[in-house]
């Protein structure tokens, strides 16, 4: 591992993903530092999930290199996967299993089996102590989301990947999730998340990349992006209440058109 790579828990370089003839991701590159919260922002269809799936080893990419914790994702998939915790855009655990059974199953798969007491403790932590015997399919969206987050971090991964973790959550649950994500950072874990919420990006992300039409068009801290673009005529033109926001910059950079 080079000194440069050692700085990063994740390096993505020249990533290209195609579905048949359609090129969804073209030459995407960015680095995530150890212990930072990094946000991937972009309009619908920009290529965020395709990028995440490539990192997670769920999608075979055509070109480029992805290194997680010093391991090449395609050459050393098991080593790379051991460093990652993954929460997908929509979760589909076996809906007929109850929450306790799902926790038992996945802790076993990850090689960190949980005692009954430990399971109770985990359920309490995610405010589901009364729901251990409920089937996963019967939980509300927010409750399912809490279970899937706990499962993605069972093996204490250095890098946690979350695809739209707060979509569909009420404000209380969203704030609570932000706190959980920040707690990962405090413990030294890095987080790569996607979001459509500019508020979220500003509230918790140390740095963000804006991706559009399969390309990274900007990488920086949210504040630095605002400062850099706040006087651009296109940004001022879309700004609504005088004060330039990250959303104004995002819309100016990615255009006003709604994606197909
Ligand atoms: N399995 C697939 N087969 C064909 N095309 C796909 C497939 N998955 C994604 N795409 C296309 O690739 C492009 C990128 O999709 P992707 O899911 O990566 O976008 P995204 O940025 O995650 O969008 P969203 O914000 O809506 O979740 C889109 O045009 C999508 O239609
Ligand atoms: Mg997506």
Automatic annotation (TrEMBL):
Highest taxon of source: Bacteria
Keyword Chloroplast attached: no
Alphabetized SUPFAM superfamilies for the sequence: P-loop containing nucleoside triphosphate hydrolases (SSF52540)
Alphabetical UniProt keywords: ATP-binding, Nodulation, Nucleotide-binding, Transport
UniProt cross-references to SMART domains, sorted A to Z: AAA (SM00382)
Name of a matching Pfam family: ABC_tran
Domain ABC transporter: from-to ranges: 10-238
InterPro entries: AAA+_ATPase, ABC_transporter-like_ATP-bd, ABC_transporter-like_CS, ABC_transporter_ATP-binding, P-loop_NTPase
A GO molecular-function descriptor: ATP binding
Keyword Nucleotide-binding among record annotations: yes
Family the entry assigns: Belongs to the ABC transporter superfamily.
Protein name: ATP-binding cassette domain-containing protein
Source organism of the structure: Mucilaginibacter humi
